Amino acid sequence: MPVLFIFGDSTAAIKTEDSRPETGWGECFSKYLADGWILDNRAINGRSTKLVLSNGDFFNALECAKEGDAALIQYGHNESKPDAERHTEPWTSFKDNLKFMALSLKKKGVAVYFLTPIARRNFIDGVLEDTHGDYPKAMKEASRELGIPLVDMTSMSMDLLRSAGEMKSRDFFMNFGPGIYGNYPEGKDDNTHLRPEGAEKIASLAYSGLSEFKPAFLQ
After folding, report:
1. How many angstroms from the chain centroid is the CA of residue 151?
2. Closest Cα partner for 74 from 2, 132, 161?
3. Exposed, middle or buried by CB within 10 Å (0-12, 13-18, 19+), for 46?
4. What are phi and psi of 149, to 5 degrees?
5. Which residues are registered as beta bridge partners of 115?
């Protein structure tokens, strides 16, 4: 049966029970798949394009990929981290890594789609600010250069957060007070990682954006 791979970071990854209610949007995507398709979520916490290539994660998945499969590639949250094992520059190493991954998959007959990173909940004086710099722009340029379909999840998720507003959008993220969840008795202040409601909404946005390309893997 054909497989849809998700390559990404913690915003899409499968979570462990001791981190719940944190939920990756990739965990909510299976319901959108067409009959006969299998979801293989290879997103992993903390990954950047550099790390997923250097530690073999990508190549392990590539060995499993076959003609007729499809892949979603979404990175950007960890590319600007200062540590040498993850850091990339948007217009050079980040873009080069994306293109390498896409071309490697396409050589095996895999249909590739780029998704720009989802927004962080970063309101300043009531205004949502972008935190991803040039990385989404660089992904768009790589998309144009290779003819890879792209979904602008950055813009779509920012629109979602603006629509929800500064306070309601807390419900989408791991941002809550004490005494609500057993795994976090003291609460948490995390505007990057998703709770179930946020993961469901992001998965829905991904489905909506991808549907425009009418891929075989969607209902």
Report:
1. 11
2. 132
3. middle
4. -60, 140
5. 151
Scored b (16 or more CB within 10 A) or e, 136-153 reads bebbbbbbeeeebebbbb
Q: Report the candidate in 19, 195, 17 with the shortest Cα–Cα distance to residue 121.
A: 195
Q: Please answer whether residues 157 and 130 qualify as being in contact, where contact means their C-beta atoms are separated by less than 8 angstroms.
A: no
Instruction: Enumerate residues 6+ apart whose C-beta is below 8 A from 66.
Output: 3, 108, 109, 110
**DSSP structural state of residue 90:** I
The answer to whether the predicted template modeling score (pTM) of the entire model surpasses 0.85 is yes
CA 138 – CA 135 distance, rounded (Å): 5
**Per the structure block, which two tokens stand in for 106?**
């396409």
Closest CA relative to residue 113, chosen from 152, 80, 82: 152
User: Rg (Cα) of the chain, in Å, rounded?
Assistant: 17
Q: pLDDT for 11-52, tens place per residue?
A: 999 999 999 999 999 999 999 999 999 999 999 999 999 999
**Residue 36 CA: distances (Å) to CA of 25, 69, 216:** 21, 12, 10
